[in-house]
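Reproducibility note. Readers wishing to regenerate the assembly model reported in the main text can use the exact inputs given here. Chain order matters: entities are listed in the order in which they were concatenated for prediction.
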Amino acid sequence: MTPPNTSLAEALRPQAPVGTYRLFAAGAHAGLQDHLEAFGPLDIEAIGPDFIRVLEASGLTGRGGASFASWRKMAVTAESRSAGILPARPVVIANGAEGEPLSFKDRTLLANAPHLVIDGLLVANRAVAGSQMYLYAASGSLDEAAPAIAERPAARRIRLVQAPEAFIAGEASAAVNAIATGAARPLDKRRRLAESGLKGRPTLVLNVETLAHIGLIARYGADWFRSAGSPADPGTRLVTVSGPGPAQVQEVAGNAALGVILRDAGIDARSLSAVLVGGYHGRWVRPLDYRISPAGPDGQTVRPGAGVIHALPADQCGLAATARILSYLAGESAQQCGPCMFGLPAMAGVLNRIASGEPNPRLTGELNRLGKLVSGRGACHHPDGTVQLVSSALDIFADDVKAHLTGRCLRQGGRAA
Amino acid sequence: MSDSLHIDWTKCDGRGLCTELLPALLARDDWGYPVPRRSRSGNRTDVPVSAGSLEAARDAVQLCPKLALSLVHERNNKRA
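Running the prediction on these inputs yields the following structure tokens for the assembly.
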């Protein structure tokens, strides 16, 4: 049995955050002093490749949208480092590009807890023995984070790269492309970024919120991380909640109930017709007792994506709302891949005809056909995410579709928009 | 099945030569771009190539005017 550690350093370390209030525990716009007072010091030099095992034990998944196991990305990057005749040292990119119009959790995090993101970036860089670090984010976020970086000698090597305000700019390969060439367009994925990314180097792209969690896991360990959330979805995540009333960012436990999130945001679930979960690449669901988690039984769980929860009041037409989103997504195609470039505008055209009440029963069949045609075909998942949104709308708003095809709308006073 | 034909959609221009060389593997969509007739778990960017089609697939890789095709000999082709 090991005696309790009563060393001075341990005694001086502040208590780890309790409950789900973690990432913003140092307060609004936390400077380095607030950050250290809230979380205590972090010995970056002590971090090595063995941190990847700690991250695996924590169960942290990416908070940027794909919910991929963060340790696995890190492990592949670290392995790629040692492969080949002339091993190239990895690049680590903190991805704060948040093109999703309904999301502002990454922006909020970079403005209020930049030091936690920097900690995570330094830790990830040590864990994969990286040689270059980047923070890729919109100009406003860079302005917020730059003073924090300047405050810390260890962070001065972090290069800042501005992300354009485009939906697809945050896609991992688009981030790499933007840093390499200035064009934030997704790259073909014959090779994984972890093997060959920026200038052919193994490249680790992690969302800024993911890095902030890593900054805390490096201090308090995997068990602490797991003290919130569920075994399958440990820790906390940030969600941006919008709809009626002011939009807000919440930190919620993994596997949180949708009803609780809405209630805490001051939204009455009974006043809603549907909720969009996961953002424009997410799904419409009824405002029922869903859990927000990357994995779980269909019908009970909805994937969080980039943590977007958008509530649609009962008097608004879900088809009109989806048609507007689809038109936007079609316009945000990077214009590289034919099926996306031509398929999404075609889908948007058909859905807008349905939304406007054109009495043509063949429109839904055509929309389904186009959805099947574009899916799985592209350098990124923009077509797939878009198809998922549309098919969830046709499912959840099935009664509205029927009414629209007879020229009526069930909302908005009965007239199709 | 260990070989697949990878389509780089960022290069593909829908010229259609591949669909003429590989009619058993590829059809064309409304805009002329190749549509794999079969796919593995929804991935229609890496098209499974049977041994009988391998020679024609090599031709398609050679002749694609946009250099959008490549043959991938599958290890474990999981993406991070």
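We highlight two features of this model. Residues 335 and 341 of chain A are 5 Å apart (CA to CA). Chain A has a mean pLDDT of 94.
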